[in-house]
Structure formats: structure tokens, C-alpha cells
Design brief:
Order of helices and strands: HEEHEEHEEH
Helix content: 25-40%
CATH architecture: 2-Layer Sandwich
């Protein structure tokens, strides 16, 4: 192997590692609402017949610094999405508003901040 190929391989691997770390850190809950916090939530849709990620079932947007709006493509999946949130480890409670869901992210306590620091240390 010559230096150029070693350098190219190193750059490729470090870009991949940086991208992976960035994706993992985006999923840690902080004080600000972010679609990446919930987009990979698995939902047992259509009566439990299909397991799909939330981003495949709905559009996800923020509504101010503390709210996430979820607008399902199919209104019949609203209850499935709500159930997925209630049973998930995210500890977020959705509020159904017609055919949309609104999630208010609570402010962080000092205890939660410590947990975030502990959770992010092994990742970085």
C-alpha cells in the first residue's frame, strides 16, 4: 500500500465515524425539540401488521423551541403512533389534535442534564 491509498482510506473511515457519532448524538434528548429525536421511533402500524419508522409514516416538524408536530400521511395511523410513544423509552407524551399529534418536550432538570452527559460520553 502506498501513502495515498492509506490516506484515502483513513479519510473515508474518519468521515464515516464522524457521521455515525453525529447521528447518535442527534437522538439524545436535549432541551430543544428536534425531529431527529423521534424520527426513528418504531411504530406497529395498521393493527400491528407492519413495523415502520415514524419518518416513513408521517411528516415531522418543530413548532417553536419545545414542540414537535407529527402529521401522519394516513389518518388511520394516529392511534398507532400515539401508542408507540406511550410505550417507548423516550418518556414523551403525545397530544392528539384531530389527525395530528403534538409533543411538548419538557425543560431539562439538572438530573436529566447529568444523564445526558453520561449517555454522550461513551459515544464520543
Amino acid at each position: 500500500m502506498d501513502i495515498a491509498s492509506i490516506d484515502k482510506e483513513f479519510i473515508t473511515q474518519s468521515q464515516h465515524a464522524t457521521q455515525q457519532l453525529s447521528e447518535e448524538l442527534r437522538q439524545i434528548r436535549t432541551g430543544k425539540a428536534s425531529p431527529s429525536l423521534v424520527e426513528d421511533l418504531e411504530v406497529a402500524a395498521y393493527g400491528g401488521q407492519m413495523k415502520m419508522k415514524l419518518k416513513e409514516l408521517a411528516s415531522i416538524a418543530t413548532d417553536g423551541p419545545t414542540a414537535i408536530l407529527i402529521d401522519p400521511f394516513d389518518a388511520s395511523t394516529v392511534q398507532d403512533i400515539e401508542k408507540a410513544f406511550l410505550t417507548s423509552p423516550l418518556q414523551l407524551s403525545p397530544r392528539v389534535e384531530g389527525k395530528m399529534l403534538r409533543i411538548i418536550t419538557p425543560a431539562l432538570t439538572s438530573e436529566q442534564r447529568e444523564k445526558i452527559c453520561k449517555a454522550s460520553k461513551p459515544k464520543g
